Amino acid sequence: MTALAAAMVLAGAGTAEAAGPPVYSKYTATGSTHIAKPGADLRLGPGQFDMYTLIGPYTFTGTFTLPPAQITRSVPGVGRVSGTVTFGPGRAKGSVFGGFSGSATWPVAISGVRVNGVPYDVGDGCGTAEPVTTELTSDDFAEGTGGRLESTYAIGAFENCGAATPLINAFVTGPGNTLALDLAAA
Fold first, then answer.
1. Beta pairing partners, 181
2. According to the model, what pLDDT value does residue 167 have?
């Protein structure tokens, strides 16, 4: 090896440049979220996480796609309330170097609301004014295998829910919610 070639190799040592195009991985996503204020647990999935990883820096972008979840709760002064909650699709980015560390933003929508079994119109655009952000971490995540991702997050204000907007904001929004997603290679 010439001195010039050796210098060029050494100059590139330790850099975090991508070694080619992103690598695509597909995972099945299942899990749950606990909404703190109403004390409600929602089962999530099975859904999918499509991830594109740049080898070298081990950074990724991806999309979580989860099916809608059903919820039924007793609300004091109102009665039995049920509906459909849709998380996402969630857009994610971060690092998979030595585990999983990333953030995902999720629009959250509510539809199909029933109060004591009677349909209650919340409109077509009932959802969070801003997407929910989750900081997802996992020490045991392995590229191509998967692992459990966990987060604690806050839910912001809802809008466009008609007369139910103040009630939804009183009983749903706030901090201390948790999310656990198990990713398995599909």
1. 31, 149
2. 87
Q: What is the dihedral of CA 116, 122, 123, 125, to 10 degrees?
A: -130
Q: Rounded to the nearest 5°, which phi and psi values hold at 49?
A: -125, 115
Q: Half-sphere exposure of 94 toward its Cβ, with a 13 Å CA cutoff?
A: 21
Q: What one-character-per-residue DSSP string does 125-184 give? A: --EESS-EEEEEEESS-BTTTEEEEEEEEEE--EES-GGGHHHHHHHT-EEEEEEEEEEE
The pLDDT score that the predictor gives to residue 122 is: 94
Alpha-carbon span 28 to 45, nearest angstrom: 8
Cβ count near 121 (within 10 Å)? 11
pTM (2 d.p.): 0.85
Inform me whether the pLDDT recorded for 75 exceeds 90. Answer: no
Q: Is 109 exposed, middle or buried (0-12, 13-18, 19+ CB in 10 A)?
A: buried
- Tokens for 150? 């966990």
What pLDDT, in 10s, does the model give residues 6-21? Answer: 333 334 444 456 677 9
